[in-house]
Design goal:
Layout lengths: L3 H28 L16 E4 L34 E10 L7 E10 L10 E8 L16 E3 L11 E3 L12 E9 L11 E8 L13
């Protein structure tokens, strides 16, 4: 049977153990620390501008405000087209000042007058990328087109064109010239006037249109 002195020693040990346990809990709590961080995310912006002369740029952001292409080459032919003839017009595009990052330019479809009352089915087109100072004509409209159409209301063969933003927020980006070539087929009907409208748009670099393959 334990004496009272022995019981006091056991209780003293147990009490010591309890104190040690409390000390261990405090030590673990000190390792359970936290840090917090937050971030602010602002989306970039594109603003595409166009010009029919490479000098005066403006926004043409709807079919109703479309720029009128100057099909002036070859001289005198645009108002007097005949079977198999071709006419040319330049159109310059750039990212406006305030655009925050580069973009890809892509042809995004075309509309034209109804074939029953026009030559839209007898006119095809190709769009080429040229240097800003080049002349859009038969000599320069070569290579891989940006877009093509076997008629004025169709589009195939789309290739993206990279556009760069300005060096600062007050600078516009570097301009790119698009050369439009329209060609009449052998069945061109006389005396008909035909209007067509092309849509050119930007998208973030290296992205795809919905439903297209990567890079498309």
């Amino acid at each position: 049977m334990a004496t009272k002195a022995t019981q006091r020693k056991v209780l003293a040990v147990l009490a010591g153990g309890l104190v040690l346990g409390v000390g261990t809990a405090v030590t673990l709590a000190a390792w359970n620390d936290s840090e917090f961080a937050n971030g602010t995310f602002t989306a970039g912006a594109f603003n595409l501008q166009g010009s029919t002369d490479g000098t005066a740029y403006a926004d043409h952001d709807s079919a109703g405000s479309a720029a009128t292409l100057a099909f002036t080459l070859p001289a005198g032919l645009v108002g007097n087209m005949s079977p198999t003839s071709s006419v040319y017009a330049g159109f310059w595009v750039r990212l406006a000042a305030g655009t925050t990052s580069g973009a890809d330019l892509v042809a995004d479809g075309t509309t034209a007058d109804a074939a029953a009352t026009s030559n839209s089915d007898h006119l095809s087109y190709s769009i080429y990328q040229l240097a800003p100072g080049a002349t859009c004509d038969a000599a320069s409209a070569t290579g891989t087109p940006v877009a093509t159409g076997t008629t004025l209301d169709l589009q195939t063969g789309v290739t993206t064109v990279p556009l760069t933003a300005g060096a600062t927020s007050t600078d516009p980006g570097t301009a790119v010239q698009l050369c439009f070539k329209v060609t009449a087929d052998a069945a061109l009907e006389p005396s008909l006037v035909t209007n067509a409208t092309w849509r050119i748009r930007t998208r973030p670099p290296n992205t795809c249109a919905p439903g297209s393959a990567p890079g498309g």
